[in-house]
Write a structure and sequence with these properties.
The chain is of the alpha+beta class. It is 35% helix and 17% strand. Strand 9 and strand 10 form a beta hairpin. This is Penicillin acylase family protein.
Length: 763
Amino acid sequence: MNKIIKGLALGTGVLALAGATVYGLMWANLPSLDGKLQVEGPRDTITLSRDDLGNAIIRASDRADAAFALGFAHGQDRFFQMDLLRRNAAGELAALFGDAALPLDKKHRFHQFRKRATMALEQLDPEQREILRQYTLGVNTALDAQQVKGFEYLLTNTTPEPWRPQDSLLAIYSMYLDLQAGTVEREKVLTYIQQSLGQPMVDFITQTDPLQAALDGSTLPLDNLAIPALPNALMQTSVHTFIEQDEVVGSNNWAVTGELTKSGHAMLSDDMHLGLNVPVIWYRTQLNYQSNGNDIQVTGVSLPGAPAIVVGTNNHIAWGFTNGYVDTADWVALDKNTQLTTETEQLKSTSGIHEHQMITSEYGPVTKIGDAQYALSWVAHQPYAVNMELMALETANTVDAGLLATRRAGIPVQNMLIVDRQGDAAWRLTGAVPARDNPSSLPVSASDYPSSQWQSQAGDVPVVKNPDHQRLWSANSRVVSAADDKRFGNGGYAIGSRSVQIRDNLMAGDSFNEADFMAMQLDNRAIFMSRWHALLLATLNTQPQQFADDIRELEQWQACACSESVGYTLVSHFRSQLFDAVFAPIQTQLARENMSLRRLKRDLEPAVWQLLEQQPQDWLPAEHQDWQSWMLAIYSDSKAELLAKYSDKGRLTDLNWGKVNALKIQHPFSRQIPQLSWLLDMPSVTGFGGRFEPAVQTTTFGASQRFIVQPGREQDGIMSIPGGQSGNPLSRFYRKGFSDYANHRGTPLLPGAAVHTITIQPQ
């Protein structure tokens, strides 16, 4: 969404809002956090308090009233963020940002999520619909109370539209786009590579990685493939296109049973990783309400736009997620008998209405890949893809009850870890998984398409509870057994380096506390990168005089993604540049079709090492005599690029990882209006962590929260978030909590004493 903001008509509008005017309008937009309010909607009196961090502390008589108050809090603090989520999924961003957003709107309108959200809303049970209705009333009550609309609407010269119940489902669809669009694109690219370069090339670039850490210890067999030849036409291309930055993945979670804690309570760690923006995606929340005569208290984070606690604890159980990356999409090869329908979608932009034609089929929306037509069958298109079943975790008292309550949860499939105060811990794939049992990374024929299986949610997902070693973990790589891998497929798993490192850290201890888990979240030891370090050092040692300074930095690299390490910077960028150079001929051909190896870059690790070991002549560019000289040239180009970007005087010492990988959490508007950075952005933070260590961090990507808890011992729990609660830069809560996150301190999970309270009474 960031690129589309380039289309903002700033000019005199920005100048007019400068200085005191900006402050005045933002100040007038600050919500009232104290007092009494009489409104239609709630059944009973509700209190909405904020502590010194801005935690929303809600006390209500039932869940529906709690949803009203949560909607009110989200509407006060995060409405623009919510608006972007629904518009992103629905393909309606151009109405805010103009024609620059039309390409993204067309891409997302392909999925027709607004229509699907309306249908999904009708399928919810009455209790869930009532909760969404009350949440919506709360959001719109906060919106109506604004004396001045948010500065984002002032800058875009637009008016916020009321929230609707189906918009909350669109927020979930937006998470599908964030978490699973890579699977869809990955299989599209593989289809084109199969068409243009053949099945041997597909097999070669998707080889099984030797780094594996499934929960049952099973391993997939390693491939022993012949390296396919690159066509001469590809190698003779005068200008090659390099792969753009690959998709970063980084979420981790792990747990131990009560056998490995002093208290006997199980313990959970969860650090979901996402692209980091201002405001941060999550919203710290505590709900207090009654259910069936029981007092319920749920503490965790919510997603502005939806009424559920996404990750949290209810003092009996705690739960957390990492993205599952099983195969949830198939492209269907259409034949001449397939009936196609053309539909016209109307895209609203600031310049007017634009008509956009789409082709659909019984299998899903249709597009061209190469010269053939294919339909997309994606789990996000199915009726069971979105619902509010996740809220059932709030009232579950045990691991077993939590697993039972979320069998049909409508969310993008996740590795859910769930623990309880009795000491139990379990893992399960949780979310929308199709019942089809023959996943494929390449297209299936229309005649073989299992329509009835796609329309049903899987009931055979595996569960691992209280394993003999008392430890559970996931980190976006394969978690399921080798046998289950055939059933659920590979939707683009991460390299197993983090999973292996986390597993080994867990196996190295026999008792754990919150501080131990925090140290594991911050583990930046570069175990995976060590062989790349050894390769680069050996390469440069062939020219020891020319690269004496480089060799010295590499020898002192500290074997970690540490802030002061220059060697880690050199190794990391050499690896990335080598991938780009080696696969540039294939990327160049893909670019002609508006495709990219970006979604496949993490699959290429085994293939790269096979190429480095065998050094085939037909993969070597004509301007290089051998692979050794080519690697030296790749490194020299990589270093020159780094020095040009990060050093005015051409000094290697300026390339420390903390500077090169500095974390910059920005507001989408400040990226295009740098003059607003001082007001909108979080302070820049020295880089810590890399791409393949548990402490994953890039300049714009990192842990969106750090959560650690033993259910029943919430007073010792941690919930650190890289930003504050409010989306208004003048709010005292705009940056609250960021300092703890930036300095690797654990922010307390439980809210503190209330400093503001609104009493909401039924009218």
